[in-house]
Design a protein that fits this description.
Layout (H helix, E strand, L loop, with lengths): L18 E2 L2 E2 L4 H22 L7 H21 L7 H17 L12 H23 L17 H13 L1 H34 L1 H38 L3
Antiparallel strand pairs: 1-2
Helix pairs in contact: 1-2, 1-3, 2-3, 2-7, 3-7, 4-6, 4-7, 6-7
Length: about 240
């Protein structure tokens, strides 16, 4: 019998229980794969920048392509004013990407399939962008909620819609990543279970779907990291350039 496809998302403690004021801060499988992802990024960038060869090796090429990809994304969406925030956006993109990709390894844990992880990232981005907006423009940042060219009679309604849209940013940003990763991995587990239960004779069709889904999920893992980073750039662009 196939196992429950939702069991792969269970968070469990690794090591002793650690509590501070009834708050459980024990090390878990989620913590482990976040640490592994962070360590893998550091190793990649360290090895990739150690020797700046004229003809780069594979690791250096990956590091340079990642740097160039994020740099161009920031320039295209937020402009030159966003360059000081390159380090944060680059770190964000790489962290989400590596967490997504490590989740593709069998028996690994997909950190970004949990709403608490994606929401904390999205909430931090939302708060940081809002602070940057007020630092740059003061209370003039509130003009973001008043689009130009709107008839006076419609202005109150439009302002309310703009405020709701702005406040929903961390929700939409976090749910998009969480839902895509969770749904994809659930489908892979379901079809994998069909392969096991139907055996060699009857399992070739779900096996074909599993292979196709795996390829699609790898693409989705990259696209979701890209979408998460580019939306961050768009929000930062609003804060820096006050487009309204």
């Amino acid at each position: 019998m196939a196992t429950n496809p939702m069991h792969q998302f269970n968070v469990y403690r690794i090591g002793p229980e650690i509590k501070i004021s009834n708050i459980d801060i024990s090390f878990t499988n989620a913590s482990l794969f976040m640490a592994i992802s962070s360590l893998a990024i550091l190793i990649l960038l360290n090895l990739g920048t150690k020797k700046n060869s004229l003809i780069p090796n594979k690791i250096q090429l990956i590091a340079e392509l990642s740097y160039g990809f994020v740099s161009k994304m920031i320039s295209d969406t937020a402009g030159s004013k966003a360059k000081p925030y390159f380090s944060f956006i680059f770190s964000l993109f790489m962290f989400v990407l590596f967490c997504n990709m490590f989740g593709m390894i069998p028996y690994a844990f997909t950190v970004t399939s949990h709403i608490i992880v994606t929401f904390v990232l999205a909430a931090f981005i939302f708060i940081a962008v809002t602070i940057i907006g007020f630092i740059k423009h003061g209370f003039g940042y509130l003009k973001l909620f008043v689009p130009s060219g709107v008839p006076i009679i419609l202005l109150p309604l439009i302002v309310i819609i703009e405020i709701i849209s702005y406040l929903s940013r961390p929700i939409s940003l976090s749910v998009r990543l969480f839902a895509n990763m969770m749904a994809g991995h659930t489908m892979m587990k379901v079809f994998g279970g069909f392969v096991i239960s139907l055996g060699i004779v009857g399992g070739w069709l779900p096996l074909s779907f599993s292979v196709a889904l795996t390829g699609l999920e790898i693409l989705v893992a990259f696209l979701q990291a890209y979408v998460f980073a580019i939306l961050t750039c768009i929000y930062l662009n609003d804060a820096l350039n006050l487009h309204h």
